[in-house]
Request: fold
Amino acid sequence: MQFETTIGDHSIGVTLDEKKPIAIIDGREINYELILQDNGRVLFRNGTKLFKVDNITVDGQQVSFSINGVFIESTVKDDQELLLEKLGFTTNAVASAGKLNAPMPGKILELLVTEGEEVTEGQPVIILEAMKMENELKAPATGTVTSLDVAQNDNVEKNQSLLEIEPRG
Reply:
């Protein structure tokens, strides 16, 4: 899996091996171990160095946490977001409150929710086919689906409204 994280003005490319605890960070391979603790803390071990990761919060692409007591805010893009960006599409506008807009032109293959249904942020809600690839679009907020603006097999344009969620909270 590929990621790009930005901390301040510095961007870092990260590739994780899904089968082995190996990461390639800016071209450098490192071995690591993650230890998840009951209190929500994650211990990150690299060789003989041990880092305590606490206070982890994720809000879309924004990830904040502390490492050994030092607070860090970052933006993290996954491989799908990096591909969309490379192709000239932006994903930042997708998660505006409870509105989900098409990140690119395509065809609605499947609606995974119905109006009135309760959803959680990050839950898959629509399958959009674009450029012969199936893209799983996720709920931008936790709440109730108040409107579905498309139907199965509809063709959509970039930034077209797909659904709206009344955020809970």
Observations:
- The mean pLDDT is 87.
- The first strand starts at residue 2 and ends at 7.
